[in-house]
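agent: user wants the full assembly modeled, not chains individually. Plan: 1) parse entity lines 2) check alphabet per entity 3) run joint structure prediction 4) return tokens. Steps 1-2 passed, two entities, 222 residues total. Proceeding.
--- entities ---
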Amino acid sequence: GQSLEQPSEVTAVEGAIVQINCTYQTSGFYGLSWYQQHDGGAPTFLSYNALDGLEETGRFSSFLSRSDSYGYLLLQELQMKDSASYFCAVRDNYGQNFVFGPGTRLSVLP
Amino acid sequence: DVKVTQSSRYLVKRTGEKVFLECVQDMDHENMFWYRQDPGLGLRLIYFSYDVKMKEKGDIPEGYSVSREKKERFSLILESASTNQTSMYLCASSFAGSGEQYFGPGTRLTVT
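--- prediction returned ---
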């Protein structure tokens, strides 16, 4: 079967750093994506890792270890507007399909 | 800006009705996807299409069908709506081989 695991909830304060982990078991693997979704909104793309290592985009970074079937999203200098749900997604099935994790709800406190 | 549009934001249908959800993208993407999103379950793939007239079943295709007659348009059909199909339906598109999907605003469907 295919499964992705993420923590269901994370809470942090403004200005802090938070890491959201994602472990996966899928039939194929081409890369790991991260999406942000605010309440009532659509998911928006944050980052994609096809190779091992760290990808940095502004305050957000994403890491992948293919040998460990593990990745994480790192959010720095947290802001209130970062309060949202974050989903990891594996690109598999010859790279055409995506399998999403259950999502992590991040609450940023003042 | 990439735009993915869906035909309705909110829809209320009765059990047994045939329901059409339409999705249009304007970026010439090869791939298009239909997901449903339910609390605590994340996004689950219903069907996807990697080319005109091509379709592949996702994780939960039962009770649904799709149609892709033109590259920019991907339709989801509920042949006979049931209450357990009450959900948020999200359409997405992407270039072939890309890890980046663009999502539409979603359709919240209620079946009574």
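agent: reporting back. The mean pLDDT of chain A is 93. Residues 62 and 73 of chain A are 5 Å apart (CA to CA).
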